[in-house]
Amino acid sequence: MPCGAGAFARVNLQMMATDVQVAVRKVVSVNPATGKLLRQFEPATEADVRAAVARARTAQPGWNDAGVRRRIAVLRSFQGLLHQNKSEVARVITSEVGKPLVEALLTEVLVVLDATRFCIETAYSFLRDQPVPHGNLAMKTKSGRILRQPYGVVGIISPWNYPFSIPATETLAALVTGNAVVLKPSEFTSLAALELARLLWMAGVPEDVFQVVVGDGIAGSALLNSEIDKLIFTGSVATGKRIAQAAAARILPVVLELGGKDPMLVLDDANVEVASSGAVWGAFMNAGEACLSIERCYVHRSLYQQFVETCACKAKQLKVGNGMDSETDVGPMIHERQLRIVESQVKDAVSRGARVLSGGARLEKLGPNFYAPTVLADVTHDMQIMREETFGPVLPVMPFDSDEQAVTLANDSDYGLGASVWTRDRARGEALAKRIQAGTVMINDAVSCFGISEALHGGVKASGLGRSHGHFGLEEMVRVKYLDVDLLGGVKKSWWYGYGEKFKRQMEGLVDMMFARKWTERLRGTLLTVGTFRLKGKL
User: Fold this and answer.
1) Beta strands in 285-417 (DSSP E)
2) Which of 66, 106, 150, 218 gives 20 to 30 Å between its CA and that of 395?
């Protein structure tokens, strides 16, 4: 699940002096549940990043020349290794991010296993030359086809909230299409990225074809400014805008996934018991640190009171704790800085009239990064909690009176990543879904669309540019080329120089023959066209 406001907020674009930050001396991986130092690293320097990209550029042609069948075989080996090591990988993820082990398995490991399956099943046919039919009669002696060729070196800057599944799904699409990859993970979750590298290398990906550069914002900036051929970035809107500006200066292609403020619409015919469970899970899974998380909930007024009370009751039953405990439902937030953002938004909402029905406070006995799953009632769009990305375990709920108002409220946001509609009437739900400004809309479920490998992922408005996953994600990893072969290569073309009045009349006739509305005009045009392909007088 994609990341949002806090994803890579430290990216440092050095060309903008006001944003320059001093590199940390060490990159540290810390367990957010216990505060235990897991590992520390020397951050990659600008020279280190440039060298990694240079190695990738040297290695990429050989990887591409190995052929798609070989690359598929390597991915199949990776899939087997990941399956064998699923529990170990999940523990690494949980230790770095804090999410429950079961979420690490389902939303990270399982997602990557299935994304690998999709690449294995799809890559060969996707990369096969695609014939292009020629409808223009004048072009019938030509044979054309579309080629899909790798960009070369793809840079990936990935977030901390899904430190394995986000970079892995993007990496797999890039590798299977023949690219080399240089990955810069969040400085908070280096271990998960290195685990991905270990498995890919064991599977047969050459070490220079897939590299991880561990570092802070300076390393991210260096990757952006290096000789990569495309950049895939997941993170905050503010950083995404700066990346877009820098990329535009050199016309560097980018994919930007910049977060969301996903609305949930509960219609008057919805099943409250089901919808409330969906809301609680969609808002609190991964401690709410997911851009597809339900961050705004709109409920028809006839169901509103029952709905908020049911959600509050269910939220109070959730067990908050260390993700390594199999009984834990909600783990810690990634760090206290992110928790303070949540705390501030809840405080603002309460000061403006919102009611806290559950949670609304830190759980200090568990540690500095734990925040109680919070349900807020009577929120309005004047509150930060309904305007700004929260990225924490908060479910704000607001009533509406009509389907029209619900759509208006859903679209009243700078973001447009995902949304959900909850109703017993499928046709009604789909009709409303078509009107919601979002990259994905789910009916009677939320968030899980990220686990559908065939489905595209990405948003509109401030949620970003481009798509990942599925066929559209593969398309982002290739340059499309049209190749045309003239079947009469030894013959001059009638439209070459040597125009004259006669040729002009023949071309007028050709146009009439092909496109005139009346059959008499077409016949006359056909007669005028006679002799067009006599090439006497052509240069």
Assistant:
1) 294-300, 355-358, 374-377, 394-400
2) 106
Residue 311 annotated among the catalytic residues of the structure: no
| 279 closest CA partner among 303, 299, 251, 260 | 299
CATH number, domain 36-132+142-259+469-481: 3.40.605.10
CB 415 within 8 A of CB 263: no
Q: Say how many CA atoms lie within 13 Å of 322 toward its Cβ.
A: 12
> Considering the domain 262-414+418-452 in this protein, what is its CATH number?
3.40.309.10
Tell whether pTM > 0.90: yes
Q: Could you read off the pLDDT of 2-22 as tens digits, one per residue?
A: 443 333 333 344 433 333 334
* 291 in catalytic set: yes
Q: State the catalytic residue, choosing from 96, 195, 257, 388.
A: 257
Of 225, 200, 221, 229, nearest in space to 212 by CA: 200
Distance CA 74, CA 72 (A): 5
**In this structure, what token pair is assigned to residue 234?**
């997941």
Closest CA to 312 of 259, 354, 368, 340: 354
Task: Render pLDDT for 258-295 as a digit per residue (tens, 0 to 9).
Answer: 999 999 999 999 999 999 999 999 999 999 999 999 99
Burial state string for 323-359 with b = 16 or more CB within 10 A and e = fewer than 16: bbeeebbbbbbbbeebbebbbebbeebbeeebebbbb
Q: Alpha carbon of 131 to those of 144, 145, 147, 364: distances in Å? A: 6, 4, 9, 63
Nearest residue to 438 (alpha-carbon basis) of 455, 462, 454: 462
Catalytic residue among 108, 187, 195, 291: 291
DSSP H or E stretch at residue 150:
strand 142-150
CA angle 430, 435, 436 (to 5 degrees): 95
Strand order of the β-sheet with 254-257 is: 210-212, 180-184, 153-157, 230-234, 254-257, 464-465
Question: Both tokens of residue 155?
Answer: 């840079």
Q: Name residue, tokens 């394995």.
A: 164
The three-state secondary structure class of 256 is strand
The single-letter DSSP state of residue 481 is E
Low-confidence residues in the chain, pLDDT < 50: 1-24
